[in-house]
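Hi C.,

You asked whether I'd gotten around to modeling the 246-residue construct. I have! Everything is below, sequence then structure, no commentary in between.
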Amino acid sequence: MARRPTVLDAPGVRAQVRAPEPPLVVELAGIAGAGKSTIAHALARLDPEIRARPRVSGPSYLASVPAMVPRAVSLHWPFRGLLAKETKRALRLHALHRLVHRMRGRGAVVFDEGPVYMLARTLALGGRGVATPGFERWWRTTVAEWATVLDVVVWLEAPDDVLAARIHTRPQPHPLRGADDPAMHGFLGSYRAAFDRVLAELRVRRGPQLWTFPTDRASPEETARALLARLRALRETAAPVPELAR
């Protein structure tokens, strides 16, 4: 028996309805000890539509290599020495970019060591090795790409003394655990400056919204709930309304 036509059979409507929505792309950014991973896990527990801390598989890394070769060459021009760690971070950024563009479905993708973190880390640890025209070209291109991909950057803020105490007592290993105050303040200051530059350049390119959440005034669960409410409101505001055939 022939199927009765429905409104979904109108020209163009079925494709619109079936096309999955892209997720919100969110990064929890902050200095070590800010609570990024803890809050990411809490968000995933609270909402099954949130894909927290997505991992890039080995095959995905390999698939990113061919496209990265020209950028890796440009990154080193003029050649002043091998930028092994910077090239590795550039490869990860490219792999993350591919990962995001392959994702579909409502909810949100939440990074805790995403593009903002990788760019800030490259600045904080790069030293004189990144002071080249090639690096600057790569930097501008990469920041511009992520400005169009990220929807929200959530800056998780806490005072330096709170961050230092968390680093000293956290179960995860950290190079600064047990360091004296001058070393700790130098580390925190260099990362703050690096994050400030990344976020400022994303804003110049009209990139993601920037939300600030303090993490020293509430529990991670409470912070995650407040953040989730705001993400859901943004998701509903941004949800497209399919146009029915006229």
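If it helps when you're writing up: Residues 181-204 form the longest helix (24 residues).

Thanks,
B.
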